[in-house]
Structure formats: C-alpha cells, structure tokens
Amino acid sequence: MKLYIVGLGPGGGQDLTLRARDALAESDLLVGYTTYIDLIKTDFPGKPILSTPMRREEERCRLALQAAAEQTVAMVCSGDPGVYGMASLCYELAGEYPPVEIEVIPGVTAATGGGAVLGAPLSHDFAVISLSDLMTPMEVIETRLDCAARADFVLCLYNPASRRRKDHLRRACDIVLRHRPPETPCGYVQNIGREGERVVVLPLSQLREAEVDMFTTVYIGSSQTKIIGGKLVTPRGYLQR
Amino acid sequence: MKLYIVGLGPGGGQDLTLRARDALAESDLLVGYTTYIDLIKTDFPGKPILSTPMRREEERCRLALQAAAEQTVAMVCSGDPGVYGMASLCYELAGEYPPVEIEVIPGVTAATGGGAVLGAPLSHDFAVISLSDLMTPMEVIETRLDCAARADFVLCLYNPASRRRKDHLRRACDIVLRHRPPETPCGYVQNIGREGERVVVLPLSQLREAEVDMFTTVYIGSSQTKIIGGKLVTPRGYLQR
Q1: Do residues B30 and B47 lie in contact, with contact meaning Cβ atoms separated by under 8 Å?
Q2: Are the Cβ atoms of A147 and B148 closer than 8 angstroms?
Q3: pTM: predicted TM-score of the whole model, two decimal places
Q4: What pLDDT, in 10s, does the model give residues A27-52?
Q5: Residue B32: CB partners within 8 Å, gap ≥ 6?
Q6: Interface contact A88-B123, CB threshold 8 A
Q7: In degrees rounded to 5, what are phi and psi of residue B231?
Q8: Cα–chain-centroid distance for residue A223?
Q9: CA distance B78 to chain A (A)
C-alpha cells in the first residue's frame, strides 16, 4: 500500500498544505509523536491513531512501515519531514519491510516559519545546524558553527537546548563571536504558530544569556542583517546593485 | 491597510498552505512576477492582478506597498517569501510609504520541496547558497561553498545557472571536490511541483557536467549521504546511536 510522510508545518492547523491535508484525509491510519498528533487529531475525528512518545523514532517508523503493508498510512512530522524529521529514517528501514510506496509531503520547516514571524532573516545564504549532540559529536557541530560564521552565513539553529543541554546556545554564540561583533542582530521564536508563540529580537551578546528550550528556533544574523522597524531583515542586495 | 507577502510553495496549487490560500482569497489585489501569478490566477477568477516581469523586483514591491495604503494586497512569491524572495525588500522599502501592516506567510521553499522529491537529502545540517552573482560577489559565494564543503554540510544550491552564467555549477562542484570524493551522491530537481518536473540522482563528478537552468535546485551530499532504492538520503544517525 502506501506510506505518506507528512509535514504539518510549524503549528499544524493553518500552515498545513492542501496536499498534506488531503493525504491525512485519505489515510486509514495516522502515526506520530504524541505532541504532533495532538495538533491535528481533532480535524480527523474517528481516524485510527498510533502515537509514540519522544525518542522512540525507530519504533515509530517501524510501526508505520509495518502498517503500510496493508493500508494507507500517514506518518506525521512537525515542520518538514525531511529536515531533522522521520523521512530519512523511514527510507533507511524500508528495505526490511514488504515493499511499499513512500511519498514525502513537504511542509513549512521551522527555519522559514520562524523567519516569517521575525521578519526576513533568511533572505540571503544561510546554514541550518542542530545543536543536539545526541547523534552528532559536539566537535562536528562546533566545526560547522565556526565555518558557517567565518563564511558569513546567516545561522538558523534547531534544538538549541534541552533539560540536559543547558549551555549549548552559549557555546554556539561564543564560537560565532570569534567572527562577528557582539551587536550582531539575532532573534528567536518559541512555539512557532502554536499557543504560547513568543518572538524576541536581541543582539548576539544577549542571545548568549537567553533562556531557550527545545521548541525554540534561533537566528544569528550575518554581517548584512539589520533591524528594521523591530523586524530582523537580511537584505538580498536589490537596493545596492 | 495590509500587505500579505505570500509563499506559494514550489508549484503553487497543492503545496499552498491553508493560511496562504485564505490570505489570497481575502486580498483585493494580487501582485507578483508574471510566471508565479500564472500559477494561481485561475483559482481566483476576476481578482485584480498587477504582474511585472523578472528583475523588476524593486518596482514590484513599491507597487504593492503603494497599493496597500488603500486596500488589502497580497504580494505572491514562489516557495517561501523569506528565502531569496521579496519579504526583505518590502521591509527595506516600507519606511518610504504610508504605514501598513506587513504579514509574511511562509511557504514550502524549494530546498525542502525538491528534497521531498529526491528522498531526504536535508535530514542533517545543511547550507543554502545561491549561485547568482547578480547581487553577491563571486568571491563571497566561493568562500561559502568552500567553508560549507569543508565543514561537511549538505549543500542546497539555488539559481545554479542562467543564460549568462553557464559555468557556475561546474565551478561550485570543483570547489566541493577539494573536500569530497567524486562519487559523493548528488541530485537535482527541475520545475519542482510543476509541469515538466524532472529529478536526477548522480555523483558529484557528473553533476559538474549537468545541464541545469534557473528553475533547478541542486543538492550535494555530505560524507554521510547515500542512495537507498534510488533516493538521496542523509541519515540523521538514529540507527547508529
């Protein structure tokens, strides 16, 4: 049968694409992390649901692949399923299950969803980096931060903190501060498109001290980024050419 | 009044979010580049439209800001309006016009839209770089390519070629080849989500020779990227932890 891997956009609801909505409606079973399933389940009353807690990603993908042998299944992910989502893991595991057609349905990822709330920070070249060292050595993460700051990319940081990793954002800021001044415009958005959405624009020196959580997306400006009317904006260069 | 800056997603149509569709429906006037307006105008018959040709970006934003003084206007952009789109330019120019509320409505950007077609190439840290040197010195672009390749980011390249810039992709590949082997898995997608969509998976050595155009998005794998069942996949690391 078929496995849809569906991006819900940052908040579910209104940021869902028409294609994602249709795939959810067409599916016999919805599979996902409990928090994300909760964002959409009221829109599909009575539809069978399999939800699993955080950090059970492999189990979740295996359940979806197994179930897809006999019905149409939608595995739901926050944001885009291809950006730190479940799409790659499903492809990695698919060979162990009966053949099933996989269709990844893209969604608005947190980088651009949060960017829209802050203004237009990602309007020139940018690098997306997760600060989670659960599966990536901290050394690799730090090299990427250093190289991206050196080459003047705008930085967009996913998973900037967790209960266990309280100081990762401070370490990241200190690496960027080797290459950029403390007044560099930055920002962060918590709970993009959801209840409790919170937007903060601040200089790099203060971002170092910010209290963020795992539902926060962080932006560090390039040398060109500025604050215009309270918004974080990286010009593309149209007015300079 | 109000100016919506609306991302249509890669192809318009089915990749539009519910919020984008509602904003277009609510607007009194749609403004945009002719090609993108054509993707959606049949869905809004009779709605007034102002379309301008390519490379008239400043004029287009000024028209939208002027018109928004008296009515609700939607400026439409392909993909996400914050990624090489019109959002930053509108914020830069807004101060010259009567005050107007600006709301950026994010969309699926080509990076994740094309990624979904290819598989899951962006499932670990990635850098987005435009190869257009119309507004960015070639030297800056080349430094970014070199740093991103050195730090083992997946690379996603926008605007890899135009009639005038035929050899930029070859130059970019040669820079990446300093740090990665010629067999590195790569891919590209032309006309994502539109008529004539075309997907190619190929090694870096062949990407160098590929014939691409300005409607192509290019992906260069990291050291971890592999091809699984014809799909380009960058594992997140769940199976190694």
Answers
A1: yes
A2: yes
A3: 0.97
A4: 999 999 888 888 888 888 889 999 88
A5: B50, B51, B52, B60, B75, B76, B77
A6: yes
A7: -100, 150
A8: 24
A9: 13
Tens of pLDDT along chain B (241 residues) come to 899 999 999 987 899 999 999 999 999 999 998 888 888 888 888 899 998 877 788 999 999 999 999 999 999 999 999 999 899 999 999 999 999 999 999 999 999 999 999 999 999 999 999 999 999 999 999 999 999 999 999 999 999 998 787 899 999 999 999 999 999 999 999 999 998 999 999 999 999 999 999 999 999 999 999 999 999 999 998 887 6
**A233 and A227 Cβ atoms separated by less than 8 Å:** yes
A112 contacts in chain B (CB < 8 Å) = 7, 80, 82-83, 106-107, 109
* A160 CB within 8 Å of a chain B CB: no
Tokens of B100: 């107007």
Nearest CA of chain B to the CA of A163: how many Å?
Answer: 19
Looking at beta carbons, which residues of chain B come within 8 Å of A89?
Answer: 235-236, 238-239
Residue pair A152/A123 in contact (Cβ under 8 Å)? The answer is no
Q: Do B144 and A153 make contact, defined as CB atoms within 8 angstroms? A: yes
CB neighbours (10 Å) of residue B142?
Answer: 19
